TrEMBL record:
SUPFAM superfamilies: DNA/RNA polymerases (SSF56672). One of its GO terms (molecular function) is RNA-directed DNA polymerase activity. Residues 1-133 form the Reverse transcriptase domain. Keywords: Endonuclease, Hydrolase, Nuclease, Nucleotidyltransferase, RNA-directed DNA polymerase, Transferase. This is Retrovirus-related Pol polyprotein from transposon 17.6. It comes from Trichonephila clavipes. InterPro entries: DNA/RNA_pol_sf, Retrovirus_Pol_polyprotein, Rev_trsase/Diguanyl_cyclase, RT_dom, RT_RNaseH. CDD domains: RNase_HI_RT_Ty3, RT_LTR. Coiled coil: none annotated.
Length: 395
């Protein structure tokens, strides 16, 4: 590896003081590395301090704090791949042993060594990168959910950012994550004062609750019936990718949600629905490209828009993005899309039956007081009422 520095001024940092026991651990490790030819004595003017890190088994890991030196490096555009943990998936024991043999043969050929006590073989469930994978499902690891559960109420912007970073890593498990987290993410804006009030507390507790309830996602399988359900509103848009499992039912593979930008809030309803589909396809491209799937939407204008020849520039550009996919569009009424509707309008979701809604509308249309109220609202003299879901409510 070739390292290029910004200048030739040596980066020197004094060593950290260590205890007697820590010194013994360091000397033992260095002697072992010297014997193996991994390190050699150096007379360089560049020095960085040693940092000892306690491992789970009680032993220590010798690390070096290179932060100061890293600031003096010339950055490269190419990412150097670093491989640490290795997982070998297989459908059954026979296939697992066959793959294991192949991996060990390659490791032996190139002189790669593995620590036996860190290895696990023929496991039906394994923890990997903060997730528990097994039996065709994936869920957040218990250690991560405990961290979320015990997270203290943030008192600074930095603590809010830390909490959002922790929960955001698992956002694919949480329907409407962006909308739920909005009161918290708004606190991280430079122009907003830090005021942790009821909306922020509700969002904080809601995210903790959702992640500690052990949400489960299915692992995507090639060739299975796949559906992409989308919905949009002025507040945001969302989608859920589902696949039919062995039980014949559709199970979620991953969720997506996004707040609308100030510019997107001005889009028409069908443009927002189109935007939801386009961004969902971008998000789930690795799953959907090359596979046939259904796009389920409650926007009847979506298909009509696809058939038009004279499209506005923005929509025409979006239609080009859809051409590389093998899909069919299925319209489904809004009452049957409540599961994805929440992703786009979390804060205003109302679930009612068709019968109840119709009865309320009919009763209010026949009520004399309601009609007088409607006339009053129409004159713009009333500010305490609004029309919602075609029937009136007091705000």
């Amino acid at each position: 590896m070739r390292i290029i520095l910004k200048d030739d001024i040596p980066v020197y940092q004094p060593a950290h003081r260590l205890s007697f026991s820590e010194n013994q651990d360091v000397n033992k490790q260095i002697d072992e590395w010297l014997e193996q030819g991994i390190v050699r004595p150096s007379s360089s003017e560049y020095t960085s301090p040693i940092v000892l890190v306690k491992k789970k088994d009680g032993t220590t890991r010798l690390c070096v704090d290179y932060r100061r030196l890293n600031r003096e490096l010339m950055r490269k555009g190419i990412v150097i791949i670093y491989m640490d943990d290795l997982v070998i998936p297989a459908k059954d024991e026979k296939k697992g042993l066959e793959k294991l043999r192949q991996v060990l043969e390659v490791a032996s050929k190139y002189g790669l060594e593995m620590k036996f006590k860190k290895c696990q073989f023929l496991r039906r469930k394994v923890e990997f990168l903060g997730h528990v994978v097994g039996n065709g499902t994936i869920r957040p690891s218990i250690s991560k959910t405990i961290t979320v559960k015990k997270f203290p109420v943030p008192t600074t912007v930095k603590q809010v950012q830390s909490f959002l970073g922790l929960t955001g890593y698992f956002r694919k498990f949480i329907p409407a994550y962006s909308q739920i987290a909005k009161p918290l993410s708004d606190l991280t804006r430079k122009d907003n004062p830090f005021m942790f009030e009821q909306p922020q507390m509700e969002a904080f507790e809601k995210l903790k609750k959702l992640l500690t309830e052990s949400p489960v996602l299915s692992i995507f399988q090639q060739g299975r019936t796949t559906e992409l359900h989308t919905d949009a509103s002025q507040q945001g848009y969302g989608a859920v990718l589902l696949q039919e499992a062995e039980d014949g039912k559709l199970h979620p593979v991953q969720y997506m949600s996004q707040k609308t930008t100030p510019a997107e809030e001005k889009y028409s309803s069908y443009e927002l629905e189109f935007l939801a589909v386009v961004n969902a396809l971008k998000k789930f491209r690795t799953y959907l490209l090359g596979n046939h799937f259904k796009i389920i939407t409650d926007c009847s204008a979506f298909q009509k828009t696809m058939d038009k020849k004279d499209l506005v520039t923005r929509v025409a550009r979006w239609t080009l993005l859809l051409e590389e996919y093998d899909y069919e569009i299925v319209h489904r009424s809004g009452q049957r899309m409540q599961h994805v509707d929440a992703l786009s309008r979390y804060s205003v979701t109302i679930i009612t039956s068709d019968t109840l809604t119709a009865r309320l509308q009919r009763a209010q249309q026949e009520d004399e007081n309601i009609q007088n109220l409607k006339s009053l609202i129409g004159t713009n003299n009333a500010t305490d009422f609004l029309l919602k879901m075609k029937y009136y409510t007091n705000t």
